[in-house]
Amino acid sequence: MDLVFCTTEFNSKIVQNYEDASQSLSMNKPRKVRLPQRAKPPLKAAAAKTDRHFVTALARGLEVLACFRHGDRVLGNQELARRCGLAKSTVSRLSYTLTKLGYLIYVEDSAKYSLGTATLSLGSAMLSRLQIRKLAHPLMQQLAEFSQCMVSLGSRDRLSMIYIDAVRGSSAVTLSLDSGARIQIATSAMGRAYLTAVTEAERIDIMERVRELADVSRWPELQRGVSKALRDIRELGVCCSFGEWQKDVNAIAVPVRPGDGLPPMAINCGAPAYIVSKEFLLEQVRPRLIALVSELETSLGTAG
Description:
By secondary structure, this protein is α+β, with helices and mostly antiparallel strands. The chain has helices at residues 13-16, 43-50, 56-66, 77-84, 88-100, 117-128, 131-147, 189-197, 200-213, 219-235, 278-300, and strands at residues 3-5, 104-107, 112-115, 150-157, 160-168, 173-175, 182-184, 239-242, 249-256, 265-272. It folds into two domains: 9-122, Arc Repressor Mutant, subunit A, CATH 1.10.10.10; 129-300, 2-Layer Sandwich (Beta-Lactamase).
């Protein structure tokens, strides 16, 4: 039986973007402290209120669905309210409506909710149209077998990177991350690769939101890591994270252009540090990962 090396960060605020004290209608820009009852709402929430095209009720319903994290089987209204910063009475009405529509399932034994099949159909429809996922999978599997690492394709979701596909080599020890898992955008190789592929304005906006959630003592380190990633992508062709996302994990990543009007994605290759050294990743895996992305973008017609 394979041993699994578990290095997930599902409870990180920077990954999940949930702030217990947030009073905004969405989680796009959480606050660090509990707001007074009549305090001015966060910028994003205020902007939403002035946008006549923005449907607040719809946004709140989607926020409830977004509260379900990778690994969550059931959640109650109290936990949903805590995660999305809405009143429990509001969440109760939203969860009831979502259950009627099939997006949630009410589990009577626990009086909590699980994601419904209607939610699955949305995710399946999204994945089915991702040509990059189909084309990348066999190439990723080849690299995983060579490197005995985990090779993953991911895209940004708010302040985290979410795995769209993940493959492993036949090694007995690997990372316990699968499709749907989230990792930090500022410290992971995949997240840094994404940040190098977007415009400077978007990168600044993302990092400003990361700064609002990060510990003050960590912010300079996060800044340095992203600055180094910009140099690495120019000089090495990859972004690196050697013990920075998790102290015992080494990884490199390359951004990829998926086409079809989709935002940039990234492919990473990583494993426990005692399995692969940074020298092995840079000397042996790096040229193969760069070649993989080049071949993939040629197949997608996005090579430039």
